[in-house]
């Protein structure tokens, strides 16, 4: 009896830059954990990881290619041997890659082996590569688009991402980002008990120029000068940290703008906040913003990429330019005041981003391959 491809047994290989808790690997881990209850899953890291506390289902096989493989070529050969070892006419191997190096591996694996190759696109390539490499970044973005065009499918997270790949005629499907709701539900999170006279904001993310962290600090300085009672907690690390720290100390803002190191579990600080804020110039769909919404915290985010898909009349505010940030923060505080009679927080995350909705989309996709 000849089996059609979608009736074959599936084996899933998920390739990530490193086995750590950084974005976008967090999303890959949540997906791997879900798929491992349905299929045989291998989660593969390309580079050495410093993280020791990733929450992985015991059913998943973890493979760190940096062990015993000093260079990228030997890592590829090791992965190719793993794919070959699992080759079987009754098995359909599906490889899902995250970020450019993993996409390169996926491209060559597809050329050598009979696999179904998927790239999970996590960002606006043009913007991300520009902020990393300047004008040369646009060329790298084009190369990356042409690379993933050669794969069988690209998963994009928002309509704006789908529009971004259209000029390249890349086969794509929209499946939104999602978060580990079960993990959050098991946390004993305490709601902010701050009086309405002090409004606590929280920023979680990299401290880079793309994230506009210095703009955020200077905006809060203006709010404090106008005697608005606000507090900003910043969680993260990056090249802008030293510059920001020096400015905060120079302006004596450290009682109201507080730096925290990058931490594995920021929820206990986030849950004590009144608003989450992210002025980034480029985002796929921010996991931190989604997590804030899920635990009932409204958000203030820039109207770029797919951010508008997160926002409705009840859960936050969008701003369009650097100049608009200050007045949008004030508008968000007004939103908080209107919600003052809501003593128990409710989930503010739109249903299209819910765990159940997104995982059902992945299950439907994998079953049809």
List the helices and strands and how they pair.
Elements: E1 9-18, H1 25-35, E2 40-47, E3 61-64, H2 72-85, E4 91-98, H3 100-112, E5 115-120, H4 125-133, H5 136-149, E6 153-156, H6 159-165, E7 172-174, H7 181-185, E8 199-204, H8 213-225, E9 230-235, H9 241-250, E10 257-260, H10 267-270, E11 275-278, H11 287-294, E12 299-302, E13 316-319, H12 325-338, H13 355-368
Could you list some keywords that capture this structure?
single chain; 369 residues; alpha/beta; 7-stranded parallel β-sheet; 6-stranded parallel β-sheet; 13 helices
Low-pLDDT runs: none
| Topology as a string of helices (H) and strands (E) | EHEEHEHEHHEHEHEHEHEHEHEEHH
Q: What's the β-strand tally?
A: 13
Mean pLDDT: 92
Please tell me how large the radius of gyration is: 22 Å
Proportion of β residues? 15-25%
**Helical coverage, percent range:** 25-40%
C-alpha end-to-end distance: 19 Å
Task: Trace the largest sheet across and list its strands.
Answer: 3-2-1-4-5-6-7
Largest sheet: 7 strands, parallel
- Please identify the structural class as seen in this structure: alpha/beta
The backbone outline, from C-alpha atoms, is globular
Tally of helical segments:
13
Explain what this protein looks like in three dimensions.
The protein is globular, with a radius of gyration of 22 Å. The protein has 13 helices and 13 strands. The model has no long low-confidence stretch (mean pLDDT 92). The relative contact order is 0.11. The strands form two sheets. The chain has a seven-stranded parallel β-sheet, sandwiched between helices. The protein is an alpha/beta fold and 369 residues long. It is 37% helix and 19% strand. Helix 4 packs antiparallel against helix 5. The chain has helices at residues 25-35, 72-85, 100-112, 125-133, 136-149, 159-165, 181-185, 213-225, 241-250, 267-270, 287-294, 325-338, 355-368, and strands spanning 9-18, 40-47, 61-64, 91-98, 115-120, 153-156, 172-174, 199-204, 230-235, 257-260, 275-278, 299-302, 316-319.
């Amino acid at each position: 009896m000849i089996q059609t491809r979608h009736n074959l047994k599936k084996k899933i290989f998920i390739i990530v830059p490193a086995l750590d808790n950084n974005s976008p690997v967090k999303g890959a881990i949540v997906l791997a954990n879900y798929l491992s209850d349905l299929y045989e899953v291998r989660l593969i890291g390309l580079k050495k990881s410093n993280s020791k506390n990733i929450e992985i289902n015991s059913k998943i096989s973890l493979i760190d290619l940096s062990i015993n493989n000093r260079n990228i070529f030997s890592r590829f050969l090791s992965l190719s041997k793993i794919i070959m070892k699992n080759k079987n006419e009754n098995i359909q191997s599906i490889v899902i890659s995250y970020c450019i190096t993993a996409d390169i591996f996926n491209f060559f694996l597809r050329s050598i082996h009979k696999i179904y190759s998927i790239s999970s696109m996590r960002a606006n390539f043009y913007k991300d590569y520009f902020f990393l490499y300047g004008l040369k970044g646009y060329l790298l973005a084009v190369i990356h688009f042409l690379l993933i065009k050669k794969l069988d499918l690209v998963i994009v997270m928002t309509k704006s991402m789908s529009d971004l790949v259209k000029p390249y005629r890349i086969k794509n499907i929209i499946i939104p980002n999602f978060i580990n709701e079960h993990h959050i539900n098991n946390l004993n999170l305490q709601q902010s008990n701050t009086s309405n006279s002090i409004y606590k904001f929280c920023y979680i993310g990299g401290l880079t120029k793309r994230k506009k962290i210095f703009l955020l600090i200077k905006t809060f300085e203006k709010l404090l000068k106008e005697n608005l009672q606000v507090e900003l907690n910043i969680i993260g690390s990056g090249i802008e940290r030293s510059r920001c720290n020096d400015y905060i100390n120079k302006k004596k803002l450290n009682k109201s703008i507080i730096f925290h190191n990058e931490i594995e579990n920021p929820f206990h600080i986030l849950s004590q906040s009144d608003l989450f804020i992210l002025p980034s110039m480029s985002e796929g769909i921010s996991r931190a913003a989604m997590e804030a919404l899920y635990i009932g915290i409204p958000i203030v985010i820039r109207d770029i990429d797919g951010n508008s898909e997160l926002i409705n009349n009840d859960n936050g505010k969008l701003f369009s330019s650097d100049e608009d940030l200050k007045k949008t923060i004030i508008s968000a505080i007004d939103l908080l005041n209107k919600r003052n009679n809501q003593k128990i927080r409710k989930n503010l995350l739109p249903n299209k981003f819910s765990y159940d909705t997104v995982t059902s989309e992945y299950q439907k996709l994998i079953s049809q391959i």
